Amino acid sequence: MPSAYKKYNCIIVEDEPIAAEILENFISRDPELNLIGKCTDAVYASSLLSIHDVDLMFLDLHLPVVKGFDFLRKVKNPPFVIVTTAYHQYAVEGYELDIADYLMKPIPYERFQTAVGKFKHLMEAEDALLEVSERDFIFISSGKKQVKIILHDIFYIESLREYIHIHTKAGCFTFKMPISKIEETLHPTMFTRIHKSYIISRSKIEVKSANMIQINGKKLPVGRTYKALLEL
């Protein structure tokens, strides 16, 4: 029965009719997604966001008049965003804007499902309480569960809006918590903030340059204001 499903309101911001139609088709296959509007420009998208409670926005970057990222920077309390683009180079710019995922056009249905799965995971993550027990591990309480995180197993911590992803040898854990809260509990000799969205384990650095750190094969950006901390 449809009523058994959670419903997430979403909008499509896309000026190519065929691309918008493909996304609409994909959305219609997911009973948890409720498409409340399609728009071809940022002005119409802004009015939809002001009228409706939107959880997810599929945003094309190449819009007429106002480009996707410029529009997103102006939105107050934006919903989660899945970017749709034909251009690889825009992914780096999106680090600053808490993008849930990127879909490269043409979009395969399986890749669409993966992106929506990431979004749902973020929506469902519970508020987390952090307990510092001993130096080599921490407990994070999420709902009724207590998750033990071994500090030496952490590769890096990623912030996405009000959530954090803790990437470890055992997998990735998501909690609803500001990155500043966990930063306070981590010893600066072991962990360093390199960006407003990233804390890294110093011992796990594989490649280091002025603008990038590679950990576990993942390239992470170094924010201008954090470069001095890396030299400590």
Automatic annotation (TrEMBL):
One molecular function GO term is: DNA binding
- Domain HTH LytTR-type, first and last residues per copy: 138-232
Response regulatory domain segment(s)? 9-120
The question of whether Membrane is a record keyword is answered with: no
Which keywords, in A-to-Z order, does the entry hold?
DNA-binding, Phosphoprotein
List-wise, which residues carry 4-aspartylphosphate? 60
Q: What is this protein called?
A: DNA-binding response regulator
Lineage of this protein's species?
A: Bacteria, Pseudomonadati, Bacteroidota, Flavobacteriia, Flavobacteriales
